[in-house]
């Protein structure tokens, strides 16, 4: 995966109208395929930007409040699924911290 493709996946997966968080809020289903692509794209971009002082605004925008994008009120989903989503939010937040700190 190249950098341009990784940016596209991040945008599609986290910001667009068809993003994982939007699908969760509207369809109440998790797009695992897109989520896994987002994970891979974040790893690619983290590696690419690890020695750079700055990252593009578009990338930063995608990661702003990433934990919150996977946080839902009790009762919105069953408890087991809420825990899974919380874990995803934490995982992506940790990837964001790695991206911005290395």
- How much helix, percentage-wise, in residues? over 70%
Shape: globular
Biggest pleated sheet: none
Instruction: Quote the average pLDDT.
Output: 94
**Classification by helices and strands:** mainly alpha
Oligomer: single chain
The run of helices and strands is: HHHHHH
Our count of domains comes out at 1
Straight-line N-to-C gap: 21 Å
In total, the number of strands is: 0
Strand content: under 5%
Poorly predicted runs: none
Radius of gyration: 13 Å
Describe the model.
The chain is mostly helical and 102 residues long. It has one domain (3-101). The chain is built from six helices and no strands. The protein starts with a helix and ends with a helix. The mean pLDDT is 94.
Task: Chart the SSEs and their pairings.
Layout: H1 3-14, H2 20-27, H3 32-49, H4 57-63, H5 66-69, H6 79-101
Helix pairs in contact: 1-3, 1-4, 3-6
Structure keywords:
single chain; 102 residues; mainly alpha; 6 helices; 71% helix
Summary?
The protein is mainly alpha-helical. The protein has helices at residues 3-14, 20-27, 32-49, 57-63, 66-69, 79-101.
């Amino acid at each position: 995966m190249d950098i341009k493709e990784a940016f596209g996946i991040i945008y599609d997966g986290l910001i667009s109208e068809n993003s994982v968080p939007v699908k969760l809020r509207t369809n109440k289903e998790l797009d695992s395929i897109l989520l896994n692509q987002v994970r891979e794209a974040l790893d690619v971009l983290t590696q690419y930007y690890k020695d750079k002082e700055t990252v593009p605004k578009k990338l930063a925008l995608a990661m702003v409040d990433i934990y919150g994008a996977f946080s839902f009120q009790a009762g919105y989903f069953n408890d087991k699924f809420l825990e899974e989503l919380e874990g995803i939010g934490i995982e992506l937040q940790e990837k964001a911290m790695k991206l911005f700190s290395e």
